[in-house]
Amino acid sequence: ITGMDMTVGFTFKAEGTTLTGTHSVNGTDTAIKNGKIDGKNISFTVALDMGGTETKIEHKGVVSADQIKMTYDMAGQPGEIILKRAK
Fold first, then answer.
1. pTM for this predicted structure
2. Measuring CA to CA, which residue among 20, 52, 24, 49 is closest to residue 35?
3. In Å, how far are 13, 34, 43, 53, 87 from 73, measured between CA atoms?
């Protein structure tokens, strides 16, 4: 998000075609919801509490050997991120 410094992380667990896990922003974890796996494609929703208002962020990504290239939509504002495995 422009003008904001944040540390964002994801922990994923795959079970068949179901994706579960957490989304972490500045040390606060939120469960991912409606997670799906379709081949190399993943999708899920994160519902964040933004000052008493729930904001849903829809994520879609493509998994490769060393990263996940993801797009998201937060309240009509799209963006892209690339996730790399923690070492």
1. 0.85
2. 20
3. 22, 15, 12, 16, 28
User: Which pLDDT belongs to residue 20?
Assistant: 97
**Helix, coil or strand: residue 40:** coil
53 CB contacts (<8 Å, ≥6 apart)? none
Q: pLDDT tens digit string along 37-69?
A: 999 999 999 998 777 888 899 999 999 999 999
pLDDT confidence of residue 27: 81
Q: Would you say 21 and 36 are in contact if contact means Cβ atoms under 8 Å apart?
A: no
Residue type at 1? I
Please name which of 14, 10, 33 lies closest in space to residue 22, comparing C-alpha atoms.
Answer: 10
Which residues are registered as beta bridge partners of 82? 69
